Target: Dynein assembly factor with WDR repeat domains 1 isoform X2
Amino acid sequence: MKLKSLLLRYYPPGIMLEYEKGGELKTKSIDLLELNPSTDVNTLVEEIQKAEPLITVSRTQQVRLLVQRLQEKLRQHCDHNFYLFKVLRAHLLPLTNVALNKAGSCIITGSYDRTCKVWDTASGEELHTLKGHRNVVYAIAFNNPYGDKIATGSFDKTCKLWSAESGKCYHTFRGHTAEIVCLSFNPQSTVVATGSMDTTAKLWDIQNGEEVVTLTGHLAEIISLSFDTSGDRIITGSFDHTVVVWDSSTGRKVHTLIGHCAEISSALFNWDCSLILTGSMDKTCMLWDASSGKCIATLTDHDEEILDSCFDYTGKLIATASADGTARVYDASTRKCITKLEGHEGEISKCWHTWKWVLLTTSWTER
Model:
């Protein structure tokens, strides 16, 4: 193996290695989730060199500089003042979803008007209107971190793959027998997964447009799906009250997570893939051991349905959003609620975090 280059990854903090093996260019990551402004850089670099044979003595100074740049980012002022930046008069009919590319330079919006629009974030200029679906465009995503492709899932039972640069449609994926309501690219951007009201999920090859595998086994609609960071596993959450962990290459069922007593609203891995977090209409979130499929904690503080949940990038914090109008933040190790966020006048439909854990929430009544 021969190291070709080292790349900085700000979120989550780490260093990406590009190396050559057998004539093929590959990548791997060194995760630095525990890095903080007071970390001893020299000691950390020594530990990295001991653990990673590709990091030779000649690369020591380069690695040290990369770690120092990550520390500088962590030291930056993190008290943000949010203000209304721009209003996009986007569609003739209501929006269904919004997504950004990794750089935040482009926004996509899906709508009941059967289109997806691509926008320049800074100027608010409409770059493309992606037309071709025959029903509501409900699920949308960029292939982050690359951001050069867009997937749209529709109530017309199809998924389309587009060029983010030109707006050209590369493929139309056909095979579902009911509405597509969720989708996700794998981290390598070689596959896009779609979840449908027909109780199945399908994985599609984005190069040739062919179906790779169909995941069958749920007894009701699939409304949530997510890959782990390696792309080797995918989880699906269903209205049948269960979450299933699958081998993404074979379609084999690895675990079925049984414990919720109402529909699943969200399901995702933490960054190192050791934990799975599931939210449900039964007003609880459950934390699972990803290797064994065993439930290790149940979070029961909300008074109404949990509509969304997420980890921070280290996997140490958990956030939940609920129909009771509150969001909560938990310590993932103690399972204790450390913050209750109040202020929305209606149900909170989404929560997500940004660099250095800024929790963002959205409420239907305030959109």
